[in-house]
Fold this protein.
Amino acid sequence: MGNNKVKIGKLKLICHRKYSDVYEEFLDNKTYCLKVRRPSPNLAMKSIVESYKNYFNLKNRKGLVKVYDFWLKENTAYIRMEYLKDYISLVDWLKKNNNIERQKEVIIKILEIFFIMIKEGFIYLDYGYGNYMINKELKIKVIDLDILVKDRTQRLHWLGIGFLALLNNIK
């Protein structure tokens, strides 16, 4: 972690966003996922670095994408993760699956992942559907770990803001 002289393999763009790009990376006869995270006004690079340090401090990473390496170079974060072959985004899965019982099963699995992190004193704060991948066996992986916090006070603060935001959307 934190190695500025890391070799980058051959890249194929998977997804382009305003502040990040995600690539399929081919390196040393292996396939990885490489996320390149640029600075944004909403999330300081210092917070992203802290989030990945928190990831490496987790004892139980069940349900989280494997992160193999993380480094900063010229105020840009590089995150090398496992490539999730045969997974689709939860957004795409929900479009194809309107069975309420299966959807409940998926929600329970996501909550179990959150509970594992909370039990270790961490909380994941980026709840968007696009941050989860799912396969045919309903195995879930959280893929965007840019906001994984440890501080209990901060956790309660963000949970409070999230709850107020939900209440604000109720008409």
